[in-house]
Design goal:
Elements lengths: L1 H13 L4 H21 L8 H13 L12 H19 L11 H13 L5 H10 L6 H7 L11 H7 L4 E10 L5 E9 L5 E7 L4 H12 L7 E4 L7 H9 L3 E4 L9 H13 L9 H17 L22 E6 L4 E6 L1
Parallel strand pairs: 1-4, 4-5
Antiparallel strand pairs: 1-2, 2-3, 6-7
Amino acid sequence: MTDIFGLIWGAITGFFRPRVDREAEIIALRHQLNVLRRMKPERLVFSNRDRFFFVWLYRLAPGILNALSIVEPKTVVGWHRRGFRALWRWKSRSGAGRPKVLFEIRNLIREMSVANPLWGAPRIHGELLKLGIEVGQTTVAKYMNRRRRPPSQGWKTFLRNHADGIAAMDLFVVPTISFKLLYGLVVMSHDRLRVLHLSTTEHPSAEWIAQQVTEAVGWELAPQYIIRDRDSAYGEVFKRRLRAMGIRDRPTAARSPWQNGYCERLIGSIRRECLDHVVIFGERHLRHVLRSYAVYYNEVRTHLSLDKDAPIGRAVQAVGRIQPVSLLGGLHHHYARI
């Protein structure tokens, strides 16, 4: 700082000195600069005060660029431009322009665009306006998830859209107290995983299975498809009944129980939650137990895939005293407010 004040003081006092002395001093200073330029390092280091001083002189007299020796003229011009940008950055620091979009809103826009691949910016913008979120449509387009492929639904969405037209069925074996084997038949809907029919018999014939399917789905509300395995019990009578009801038969591949996963999982739940804890006395007893479990499964039991709701939705009870209700002889309980 003292060097700059010294230069300013020398410039002021120089106006009162003889012209010859000023010219001689200028020649001496230029010769010293020539000597220093021959001995200068590869790159000189300037402080901000030095840069400001050269820029100030350049603003007063642009012709000094021709007299510069230790820096290039374009360097001083670059310093001036940087100072100009810094000045206007300081003037516009008050936060003028568009307000910042909150992180929660940006995240919501991305979630909407990912969950709804068929929606564009106008559709998402309309949903945000209905939620009381005031943002521009261009802002929505800016924060939407970018896709490289045309919009398409996922397999999960595709299967859910067709679940109400798909039913599944399967047979399972239950031993009685006298080691006699009984056969249970389960028919379920993929829509909300609801049990449509549970029955039992000692001899599962094609005629009997066809009759159970008719009782389970009826003629008017029959599903479009039914999934089953390749058991020989599904004979020609059963297949003709499905064609008459307008149901497309979809047997699984050989030794591929995973292709009927919903039904296999339901049979596992029946065993784990009911039959493994009950001794079956006969066909009539098994039919009663299975029908009781069907009521428990459809109306009471909550499912993870249904957002902790039952296949036949349960209303939320918030008022009253909690009272347990015994089901399946006390094997399970239903808690309700009374």
